[in-house]
Task: structure prediction
Amino acid sequence: MSIEKSVKAFEEAQKLIPGGVNSPVRAFASVGGIPRFIASGEGAYIIDIDGNKYVDYVQSWGPLIFGHRNEEIETAVIEAVKHGLSFGAPTEAETELASMVTNFFESIDKVRFVSSGTEAVMSAIRLARGFTGRDDIVKFTGCYHGHSDSLLVQAGSGAATFGNPSSPGVPADFTKHTLLATYNDIESVKKCFTDSKDIACVIIEPIAGNMGLVPADKEFLAELRRLCDENGTLLIFDEVMSGFRASIFGAESITGVKPDIVTLGKVIGGGMPVGAFGGRSEIMAKLSPEGPVYQAGTLSGNPVAMAAGLAALKKLKAHARVMDVLHGRAARLVDGMKEMAQKHGISLQVDSRGSMFGFFFNDKPVKNFADALTSDTVMFAKFHAGMLDEGYYFACSQFETGFISTATTDAMIEETIKAADRVFGRIK
Ligand code: KE4
Result:
């Protein structure tokens, strides 16, 4: 497989764009090798600028549940473009998409659209602080909620729950209100509530996808809900990735735990830049211009992006059983990969939720970020490179999640498993 055009394109890009990419994970830093520069997508495939074709299990990190260049979404976008790109004024498309989101998510009475998941989460936290009048927030190590300052936090020293900045450029003052807990560990959350009586919200990925795929235990989430209720703290489910990927009715429909605010992104934009946050009417009423909590955006609710999101959600509504089909395929993929790994004496932990799947090169189950970090990232990198050579495009980090689209056929899944067999045989 020749990738000489990507090699040259990467050299050129690095002269003008930091790291040659507009989002760090794309640079292949954790797996090595040269990121493929993509020329086009078609259904389940992406084609790079050297003409190599890959079955795409990244799907733009989640948005493309119907694969690349889905006809209905493409038609809707082209139709919207013919009326203009942006008005900075309300359009009925925003109300229509809001109606779809609130109908799918029982916990959402009202919703505000923004242009990214980061913006959705940043705004949701400000809203939670404004609604409760409190300053502190709790997040979990291993969960990623976008790159707003107060969420770029790493564990502090020792048993301290208050975190430190995880990135230069974030003043300690900006993270001093952020407490860190351990995923699936309710005692660590109780400690946060002991250390602070001023917690506005707890934010969690109920189905974590940014440490690899690590779903929260139902009992843990139920306890989390109880703790938040006891302390007058809001519970935020960050479903930017899992929303409409694990279930079309949200993690609440799987876990039975109802959040106060939900953040969304990816699928609801159909591949265009859209984020959203929503919740109970009394909470959303605090948001400007109805209430005092300020939030704004030039391209929020952009009509072309709304058209793409609407087409995607209309398709999901029309084919409600699609998630069962995708879940079956995701489960088959990871079960097949586990079987092939075992055949070659390789330990692989696998899991799937709806159209999301994950695997760890690890001999123990992964329940939190510390567990995830014990995975064999060297083996992951060899697997990733081997599968690329076989024509399969997996997420370029052990700490990411894979995705199945409606364009990913059963036959492709079987061929992927066979390719994994060959690659495991070469890297063991
Ligand atoms: P964006 O700002 O990237 O649209 O969304 C941030 C975000 C918020 N919450 C969750 C649960 C997320 O997964 C994300 C973004 N996900 C990553 C994938 N790990 C996007 C890929 C990237 O950073 O390039």
